[in-house]
Amino acid sequence: xxxxxxxxxxxxxxxxxxxxxxxxxxxxxxxxxxxxxxxxxxxxxxxxxxxxxxxxxxxxxxxxxxxxxxxxxxxxxxxxxxxxxxxxxxxxxxxxxxxxxxxxxxxxxxxxxxxxxxxxxxxxxxxxxxxxxxxxxxxxxxxxxxxxxxxxxxxxxxxxxxxxxxxxxxxxxxxxxxxxxxxxxxxxxxxxxxxxxxxxxxxxxxxxxxxxxxxxxxxxxxxxxxxxxxxxxxxxxxxxxxxxxxxxxxxxxxxxxxxxxxxxxxxxxxxxxxxxxxxxxxxxxxxxxxxxxxxxxxxxxxxxxxxxxxxxxxxxxxxxxxxxxxxxxxxxxxxxxxxxxxxxxxxxxxxxxxxxxxxxxxxxxxxxxxxxxxxxxxxxxxxxxxxxxxxxxxxxxxxxxx
Length: 402
What we know:
It contains 15 helices and 17 strands. By secondary structure, the chain is an alpha/beta fold. It has a 6-stranded parallel beta sheet with strand order 3-4-2-1-5-6, sandwiched between helices. Strands 10-8-7-15-16-17 form a 6-stranded parallel beta sheet, sandwiched between helices.
């Protein structure tokens, strides 16, 4: 996946202006305090290399979903104090992404200095993959660096069109290198069995292709969270009011996948679930078999038998991939399943297994329990991480290839 791609080590940035596409779309609380700074932390070495070599850094990123309408709520200004502290440098800020004002500020920048531009998504052209917008952005630097793995599955102007204007002077940063390296490492673990893949979260539509692609790769595919209910439903189970994507097309594909997995005996679903009669952090709960959820009740976490069943499989695994919580873990009464999974993956990694965890919620649960440092690799991209598992070259990586 990394052949024919220039990396940041192929360039010296002395007197150069690096247009650095980062993914600083980080989760924040209502006071704009960063909840998980993994994406920023992984990009710091890329920024440091450029400024240590006497280059100028122009940071471009998106944040939130402003849909082309500038707003205070989605401004990148909140990043300035955080980045200044991390880099021990003044961070200059520009309230535009293109235009004379930006060019003027870049001209005034000294070597070794950093300029953060405002949210790319304040321009509707970014998500429209607009060539003119990309061309205007290209005037701001002379080396393009993509270190935004989390956005590299998007066909957006700054990801797929912008690199085309840089000819040979484009590359990936250290974060991207790391992501590609560890995904390759995971996909090369065919002989390091057993290989266990645990997929959770609410939506199954985004993960159907992955399950299909990994049937011949994995020894165990564990399905938890909202993703398990469609499987229970197609097999005639009662799922009550559990959250589910109602889609006949999805059901047909799931039946095919289920039958393929059954032949190999690799698909494993929860045995029991903790149910509630409302979607809130209630103590009014019951534990029932997953195929017998009464009407008016919904499954919000895997139950004790499921925790033991999943943990026993993970314990004997040599290679583990995890994406998505197995319950509504942000509600403390429905977090035990996800916390137990986080703990057993950390413990199994400490005993020598290789673990790869992707997706904001999975990483957040690891951090809540203090297990994040015990995992082989935390991926900064949710959607990009999943797209990579479909054996596809991400649009952002394709755009850098020679």
